[in-house]
Amino acid sequence: MTDSTRIAFWERQAGRLDWSRPWDTAHTFEPPRRIDTDSSGTDEDGVPQYTIPRIEWFAGGTLNAAENCVDRHVRAGFGDKPALLFEGEPGDRRTVTYGQLQDEVSRAANALTALGVTAGGRVVIYLPVIPETVIITLACARIGAVHSLVFGGFSADALRFRVEDTGAKVLVTSDGQFRRGAAVPVKDAADQAVAGLDHVEHVLVVRRTGDDIPWTDGRDVWWHEALAEASPHHEPQPFDAEHPLFIIYTSGTTGRPKGLVHTTGGYLTQTAFTHALLFDLVAHDEDAVNDPQKVADAVHWCTADLAWVTAHTYEIYGPLLNGVTQVIYEGTPQVPHPGRHFEIIERYGVTTYYTAPTLVRSHMGAFGSTPAAGERPADRWDLSSIRVVGTVGESVNPEAWSWLRREVGAGTAPVIDTWWQSETGSCVLSPRPQDTVWRDDAEAAPKPGCATRPLPGLSVRVVDEDGTDTPTGEQGLLVVDGIGPSAARTVWKEPQRFLDSYWAHFGERGWFLSGDGARVDADGDITVLGRVDDVINVSGHRLSTIEIESALVAHPWVVEAGTAPTHDPLTGHAVLSFVVLDRAAAGVDATRLRDTLRAHVSQRIGPIAKPAHVIAVPEVPKTRSGKIMRRLLTQLFEHTTLGDTTSLTNAHAVEEIAGIVGHPQAAGARS
Fold this sequence. Notes:
Blueprint: H1 3-14, E1 25-30, E2 54-59, E3 62-63, H2 65-75, E4 82-87, E5 93-97, H3 98-114, E6 122-125, H4 131-143, E7 146-149, H5 156-166, E8 170-174, E9 176-179, E10 182-185, H6 187-194, E11 202-206, E12 220-222, H7 223-228, E13 239-240, E14 244-249, E15 259-263, H8 264-278, H9 292-297, E16 299-302, H10 309-321, E17 325-329, H11 340-348, E18 352-355, H12 357-367, H13 377-380, E19 388-391, H14 398-408, E20 415-417, H15 436-440, E21 459-463, E22 476-482, E23 490-491, H16 495-503, E24 512-520, E25 526-531, E26 536-538, E27 541-543, H17 545-553, E28 558-568, E29 572-581, H18 590-604, E30 613-616, H19 630-638, H20 652-661
Parallel strand pairs: 4-17, 6-7, 6-8, 8-11, 11-12, 16-17, 16-18, 18-19, 19-20, 29-30
Antiparallel strand pairs: 1-2, 3-13, 4-5, 9-10, 14-15, 15-23, 21-22, 22-24, 24-25, 26-27, 28-29
Helix pairs in contact: 2-3, 2-4, 2-10, 3-4, 5-6, 8-10, 12-14, 19-20
C-alpha cells in the first residue's frame, strides 16, 4: 500500500465520524532528521542528534469526541437503546441508555466546568469499572479537558506520580470499590497521593461502597451533589483534530512510566474503524459502512480495567462511536465463583468477548484445560450468543487460544488474536472475523497464537538491527512502517524520550520501533514473540520467553507460566520458570515437576530451552494489562533489589513468590 493509498483509506474511514469542520490536511509526517550540531552531526559526547518526529492527522478539522459517542446516536433516534449494561461485583445492576448517558455526561461537563476545569486542563480519574468512570471520561472529552485514567488498584505513590506529572487540577476518585468479595477503601490512597500538591484544587468523590471516609472541606466534593446542581443541557464545543484527548501511562515494565499523548480526530477514526472491523459490525468488507442489524444485535464485552488502553479503545470510545450496547463489570472473574464471566455472558447475551490471555488461562485452571479434565462452561451456562472471541495484552499461548475457541466460542467463533500497544492506540495485527476461511473451513482457520497480518491501512515488517527483512522463520524486530491515525503523538513533557524510545533506531526511515520481537512464517503470517528485552540468551541461542511459556502451558499440569533469564557462569543465561499449576498436578513433588516439565520443553522446543529452574507459585506478577512482569521474576530469584512494582495488578504475588524463594524483601514487597 502506497502512502497516498493509505492516507486516502483513512480519509474514507474518517467519514464514520461527524465533523463540525472538514480537515485542511489529511496527514503530515515528518520523520526524525539528523541535526548537524557540529561538522560530524553529533553532540559533544559523539551521540547523533535528531529532530522530534511530527505526526498529524486531519489537522484543521474540528469535532467533539463525546458528541460522536453519544449525542449523534440520540439525534438518530437511539436514545432508548442501552449503551451500558453495568454489573457490580456484589451483584448490583444498572442499565444506562444513550439518552441517559447524554444527560449524565452533560451534567458532568457542567459540573467539571463549575470546578474550574477548562479545555486543555488535565483531570486524573482514579475509579473502578463503574458507569461514572465512563461518564466522567466523556465529560472531559466534551469540554476539551485531557483525561488520564489510573487503575483503581494502584498505590498512592503510583497515583501521585500521575497526578503530579499531568499537573491535574482535579482528581476524581471514590469512597471505595468492591474487589475480590470485599469493600476496599480508596479515598485514603487518593488523599495521600495529592498531599502537598498545590495544583490539585478539588477531589471529586463518587459514592460507591458507602463507607466512612476522610474529608477535606473546600477541596473535596461529592459527585452526586455536584451533578444535582448541574444542568442536563450542555452544548458540545468542537476541537481541532490534533487537540489532546488523553494521556495514558505505560505500565512501567521497562522503567519510569511514560505519559503517551493521544489526540482526538485520528484516534477516534482508527478506533471506530478497527472496533467495527474486529468485532464484526461491517456489512461486507473492511471499507463498508456498518451493518445496522449487526450493530443492533451486538452486545460487546471488553473485560479490561477502564484505565488500560484496551478499555479506552474497545470499551469506551470504540463501542460508543459505533452505537453498540456493551457490558462493563466491576469485579474479578472468580467472585463469587469461577464461572462469573460465563454467567454474565448468559445474562446479557454477550456477542463479542474480548479478554486477556492470562484470564483465559485462569478459566482453564478453574474448569480444566481439556474437556475431560473438568466441567465445561457451556455445560452450565448458555454461551450460544457468542459470535467473536478475542485476546489482547500478551501473545496468547496456542493452548489458551484453542481452549477459548472451543469452550467459549463453541469451536466455530473467530478468534481475533490482536497485537497493538498503548503507543499505537488501536489494533495493528489481527485475523479478521470477515475472512471467509472461518466460515468455509474451520480446520484452516488462522493459526493459534498467531497475530497473522496487518489490518487495512497499516503496514509492519520484521527486520534485523540493520533494518533488513529477516529470513522466513527467524526472529527479528517488529516495526510499524505505515503508522495509523491513532498513534501517540509524543510523551507528555518529554518529547526527547518519545524520540529515544520509539524513533531513534529506524526513525529516519519512518519506522516506529515497537520493542517486540516477531517472526514471519512461510505463509507471510506474523507471530509476535514478546518484548525484545525478554529474550533469554543461552550459549548464544536467543530464546523467546513467550515460546517457552507456551510450551509449559501446553502441559496438562500448567495453567500459567512466567519465564525469565537468570545468570549462569557457563551459558550466560539460564532459563528460569515459575509455573501456576492445574489441579491435575496435585500431589506432584518438586523434583518430579521439574524433571517432567524440563523434558516436556525439551521435546516441544529443544534441549537448549529446558528450564534450569522450575518453581511452583500461586500467581505470577502481572500489570493491569495482563502482561507478566518478568524482570521481577529474575530479581526475586537472584535476591536483588526489586524494581518498581506500582503498576502491578496483583502486588501480593510478589510477596508470595518472595517467601517461596527466600527473597530478603519478602515482608515488604507490596507497593
